[in-house]
Write a structure and sequence with these properties.
de novo design (two linked rop proteins), 5 strands, 226 residues, globular
């Protein structure tokens, strides 16, 4: 068995003295694990950092085996995250959220979104754009996991009808539906509250886990009034 694909690095854990088990999100093969021999070497360690984009090749004797991964760098971004708290927390949160997807389940749209977000995190001028895309990504992730949200659902109400219960309702900002709308800070705060609520209730609590700490740090660093 063998495939080649573009892959976003999610993380790596030590395996033996010199190797690592690498976790990636690929365009056509979903979230995938593989053994990288020599992954702890001076040459490979900078490449195997979360948020970097690589060309990956996976080989295994049988499809259900862990298999071996080899990677070549395509876009190195990790160095741009290290001295910027919001970007660093954002990338860690993004990678943690991608781990909620079933292994080897293809989600090309989510891969494209995640890669674009990581690219924005690597650009100091694109902080607001990264936050907007991350909120949309979380909504898309809920949909991919079977918990899609829609303002047209039976539990959604108009702004006027919901006014008496404003303090108890979650807002569904317009920018989540329409890419042409620019998200204001208040809209971003509302969006992260919305997606965070449903991620916690429907995805994380049943698994006995909480939202990634990096997500809260990201929101706090980027949106201090949240």
């Amino acid at each position: 068995m063998e495939w080649r694909d573009d892959a976003l690095i999610l993380g790596a854990r030590r395996h033996g003295e010199t190797s690592v088990i690498l976790e990636v999100m690929t365009r056509g093969h979903g979230r995938h694990l593989g053994l990288v021999r020599g992954g702890r070497s001076r040459r490979l360690r900078p490449i195997l950092q979360p948020g970097n984009l690589v060309a990956a090749q996976w080989r295994a004797r049988l499809e259900d085996h862990l298999g071996a991964l080899t990677v070549e760098p395509l876009v190195a971004r990790a160095a741009y995250f290290l001295d910027r708290a919001a970007a660093l927390h954002g990338v860690v949160s993004l990678c943690a959220l991608l781990r909620l997807l079933p292994e080897r389940d293809p989600h090309e749209e989510l891969f494209e979104m995640a890669d674009a977000i990581a690219a924005l995190f690597g650009d100091i001028r694109a902080a607001e754009g990264a936050a907007t895309m991350l909120a949309r990504f979380e909504l898309a992730l809920l949909g991919a996991l079977g918990f899609g949200l829609s303002p047209k659902s039976g539990r959604a109400v108009s702004r006027a009808a919901g006014a008496p219960w404003r303090d108890k309702l979650l807002l569904y900002p317009d920018f989540l539906q329409h890419e042409s709308i620019v998200a204001e800070q208040a809209d971003l705060i509302a969006a992260f509250r919305l997606t965070g609520y449903f991620l916690t209730r429907d995805v994380l609590k049943p698994r006995g886990v909480a939202l990634p700490a990096a997500r809260e740090l990201y929101v706090g660093a980027l949106l201090p009034v949240a």
